[in-house]
Structure formats: C-alpha cells, structure tokens
TrEMBL record:
Any GO BP annotation: fatty acid biosynthetic process
Protein's organism: Geodia barretti (Barrett's horny sponge)
UniProt key word Transferase: yes
Signal sequence, start to end: none
EC numbers: 2.3.1.41
Alphabetical list of Pfam families matching this protein: ketoacyl-synt, Ketoacyl-synt_C
Keyword RNA-binding: no
InterPro entries: Beta-ketoacyl_synthase, Ketoacyl_synth_C, Ketoacyl_synth_N, PKS_Beta-ketoAc_synthase_dom, Thiolase-like
Protein name: beta-ketoacyl-[acyl-carrier-protein] synthase I
Sequence similarity: Belongs to the thiolase-like superfamily. Beta-ketoacyl-ACP synthases family.
GO-annotated cellular components: cytosol
Amino acid sequence: MDRFAQFAAVAAQEACAQAELKPREMDRYSVHVVVGSGIGGISTLTEQHKVLLDRGPRRVTPFLIPMMLADMGSAQVSMVTGAMGANYCITSSCSSGADAIGVGWDLIRHGKAEVVLAGGAEAPVAPFQPFNRTRDGFVLAEGAAIMVLESVEHAAARGAEPIAELRGYAATSDSHHLTEPNPTGQSAATAVTEALAAAGLQPTDVDYLNAHGTSTPLNDWHETKALKLALGDEAYRIPISSTKSMTGHLLGAGGALEAALCTRVLAEGLMPPTINLDDPDDECDLDYVPNAARSGDVNVVLSNSFGFGGHNSVIVLTRPGL
C-alpha cells in the first residue's frame, strides 16, 4: 500500500473498533465505503519515477498502478474491514474528505445504505497563521480520518451510542478559476446556507464553525466574506477557528479530519483556537478564536471545506438527538 492507503486502512479499523462495528459478522453488503483523496499515491509515483530515470523501466515496481490510484484508500478499507457494499473514492481537491462524508450521509438518508465508512486520506508532507496579516500559505500535512456513519435505526438496533448527528451537507462550485476563489464569495456562501437548510437550522442555531482557513491571502479574505453573506450579523457572534493552524493542511483528508474534530467540540464543549493569530488582518474581522481554546455550550457546528477548482463543501453536525 502507498502511505495514504495505509493511513486509510488503519483509521478505518480504529473507527470500527471504537464503534464496536464488525462488518464481517454483519450483512457485509450493507456496509459501504466512501473515502476521499485529492492526490492518492503520489509518494509511490514520485519514488518510482526516480527508479525509472535511474534504473530503467524494467525496475519500476509492478505495483505502481495499484499503489498510486486514488481509489486504493477506499479499496483497502473495504478489504481490511470486510465491507462489501458500494466502494467509492471522491476526488474534489481539498473538499474530498468532506464530500465523502456528505455522499455517505446521502446514501444512508436515501435508504441505500445502513452503514458507511466515510472520510479521507492523504500522504503528500512548518508554522501556520490563518487570518494573520502576514500569512503566506499553508503547511502541508498528511493523515486520515474515517467516520462510521449509521442510520439512527441501525445504530439503535445494535445499541450503539452516537457521538454526533450528521444533520446537513451541501456542495457548490465557484465556476471561476483553477486556484482562486470566486471573489464575490457567493458560491461558498450558498454552500453554507444550503447545508443549514438541509439540516433544518438557521444561522442563529450555530455555536461554532470550523473554517477552511488555509492561511493563503485569497482564501481567508474570501471565506470571511462568504461567512458574512451566509450568516449575516450572526457571523460576528459565532466562534470560528482554523484547526489547520495546528494540524497543517491534509489536502483531501482535511475536511474529514476537521469533521472528526467537530465531533469532539460537540462532546467536550471546547472550541479549538487559531494559533499564531497575533496580527489579525483588518479584512478578517470575525471571531477567529485567537491562540487559546474556548469553552462553551456547543450544540451545532459547521465545517467548511473549499478546494482548488472551485469546490465548496459544508457539513453540519449536532449533538445526538438535538
């Protein structure tokens, strides 16, 4: 396995263990897998390209293709867990992991799956300063996050205790530029409002928001603008942070990791900070929880994921039974 697929396989096994889920002892076709990756096995590709140049084509590993393909994260998760339902890889740049979770949510709510192992994995690879005046780009990171998504009925039938409830998901496209966000912020704002609508919630219900927050000049300006458009005056009330300031940017796995972190925010009522935010940009004037975590009563959280190519994906999570 390429390193990214190893991350996915281990994370999935840990998720199943925590959820006390044993796909091999269930109807295996009822357990589906959706794992996003923006790049896939780039480490393998890079290594084997050097082998090609230095030693010739006969020395290139025959495992090159099955190791570099982006879907091998989801494929390996299926194999190590025994899940035999649908098996998808979502590739939508830095929105991949969030979109994988959203697709898993759709599969369950439309009655096509009872259980979905969903998330993201990436292995490309420091300090980070989102929303700071002198920010100049993100720090590359790697890893994986996998969630066990279940229908309420299936979880209740096996006595599973939910950590959080996935209540809403929406995705839009900027239709604008390869790397630059749409300067109006409207498409990203629409993803936020549609995700809230899917959850049956209003901006007044939101207690915390995990920003995409990449620490690039354009993203942070435009994300701030989009949040003001989507949330109105509530944008100034809601604590917002970029956990990428501490984890780095996991690219296609970032949205999945941040969704997982949001479940901990709900469980513990502790909102993570945006570290190294010592000189806030005047244009980034929302409450970005600078440098120190904050306690509070958290029932509803949003997680933003935006990707090159204009992908905008938003997940809404709540405390169970809210």
